[in-house]
Amino acid sequence: MDINIKEIDNAYTVELKGRLDTPAAVEAQKEFGVLLENADKEITIDCTELKYISSSGLRLFLMLRKETTTKGGHVTIFNINDDIKEVFKITGFLNLFEIKSK
Fold it and tell me: What is d(CA 80, CA 67) in angstroms, rounded to the nearest whole number?
């Protein structure tokens, strides 16, 4: 799992590459710390190269959504593949997040 977080114009962009499985989610949680600290900002998650997400990965997204909702920020998810979109549909995440295609 490769995570690239950039701050541009007081907003954050996150690029996820690879598999966000349970071991990767443990490591990703550390990197998401900067996002949680800045949850009052606009956060964009680019999933163009995300191949898989486990329940642990979904938990990270949910934790980020909860924090941004509390602090007045916003999360937008871009470019999820069909398999991940199906997981989001089954779990109800399609209703929780703003999901767009670039």
Answer: 22
List the structure tokens of 13.
């962009």
What is d(CA 84, CA 53) in angstroms, rounded to the nearest whole number? 7
Stated as kind and residue range, the H or E segment containing 79 is none
Cα–Cα distance between 92 and 15 in angstroms, integer? Answer: 22
What pTM was computed for the model?
A: 0.92
The residue whose two tokens read 């950039």 is: 6
**Which tens digits make up the pLDDT trace of 10-62?**
999 999 999 999 999 999 999 999 999 999 999 999 999 999 999 999 999 99
Dist. CA 55–CA 41, nearest whole Å: 25
